[in-house]
Amino acid sequence: MQKDTVKIFDTTLRDGEQVPGCKLETKQKLIIAEKLDFLGVDIIEAGFPISSPGDFNSVVEISKIVKNASVCGLTRAVKKDIEVAAESLKNAKRPRIHTGIGTSDSHIKHKFNSNRKDILDRATKAVAFAKNFVDDVEFYAEDAGRTDNEFLALVCEKVILSGATVLNIPDTTGYCLPNEYGKKINFLINNVPNIDKATISCHCHNDLGLATANSIEGVINGARQIECTINGIGERAGNTSLEEVVMILRQHSELNLETNINSKLLLEMSKLVSELMGMIVQPNKAIVGSNAFAHSSGIHQDGVIKNRETYEIIDPIDVGVNESAIVLTARSGRAAIAFRAKKIGYDLTKIQLDKVYHEFLKFADIKKEVTDNDLPHIIKLSNI
User: Which of 45, 66, 79, 291 could bridge 14 with an S-S bond, Cβ 3.0-4.6 Å?
Assistant: First the structure.
């Protein structure tokens, strides 16, 4: 069966940059944008052009260098925002304007002091106005996760009639459970009469640690675009992690879904973003964390040495990691010591290994990690 393609919409340079302390200069954004294009992302959200002269200039310059991906600028449902975004995207080969408005009762009442009828009117007018400048218009229904499904379906129907090509259904506050978010996407698929004329997009936040799970549930239920960031960086607790959704879809072939991402560049991309934004990647971060393919437990080490797939569902090479790491600690066993010793030229017999292991445990109880530089000293102390 032929696989459906899920488009990857990267918002590292927009939502990701909203993290305190992660402000980038234009030249840094250009480096990331060029690498994202090479990585294979389908859409790069380059910024929020009206927010500052610097952001406007960044979108202008990114539009000039991106060769393959669509370049997207964010706006509110405000004419001036849309005009400024259109101007910033003039040099883009594939420009997209991303406009929208809050649709939940909470946003309508507390943020806009308005009503559903007015919000619907503003949404359709914004999309229609954006359509004067570009063919590709994405509409976001902010706080869709807490929006009544029937009203959300009505909004989607009307903005498609106004020219929207993509419908962004954000779980803005990270509130939804995966089952709940999946049902919302399914409801739209089955209750928006002109849904075939637009792509549904998932934009999920990680406030409850569910951004990736919700995005996957979204595409299982019919969405065909995921909005995400490198390393999952973003507002508050972050966004859906690009590397996670890419590898989930790759590993679960039964879903018949794929992306255009070159996964072997994921680690390199992760390190670049981490370095330029000054955001350290947690060691246990899935896919790109320094411990993602590291093993220190003796039982696990023995299994991985015998057959990598006993404890690893992903080949590290597939994400740009050279090989699995067998880390020597007080929890390591004889198999790991023999494996590491052989790598530096010591082919130990079983009797020799027993003696070395005895000395190793003394050493490992004092030191957090035993390195290759420590092993010759330990072997010497073993008198073998």
Answer: 45
pTM: 0.94
Residue 288 inside a domain? The answer is: no
Give strand ranges (E) for 210-341: 225-228, 257-258, 294-295, 325-326
Same domain, 308 and 257: no
Pick the closest to residue 153 from 198, 191, 199 (CA basis): 191
- Are 97 and 86 contacting, i.e. CB atoms less than 8 angstroms apart? yes
Measured CA to CA, the distance from residue 168 to residue 153 in angstroms comes to 12
Write out pLDDT tens, residues 232-248: 999 999 999 999 999 99
Task: Indicate the residue among 251, 277, 303 that finishes a domain.
Answer: 277
For 86-144, the pLDDT digits (tens) are 999 999 999 999 999 999 999 999 999 999 999 999 999 999 999 999 999 999 999 99
How many domains does one find in the chain? 2
DSSP 198-217: SEEEEEEB-TTS-HHHHHHH
Q: Give the start-end residues of each E strand in the chain.
A: 4-5, 7-10, 43-47, 70-74, 95-102, 136-142, 166-171, 199-204, 225-228, 257-258, 294-295, 325-326
Mean per-residue pLDDT for 265-273?
A: 98
Q: Which domain holds residue 353?
A: 294-381
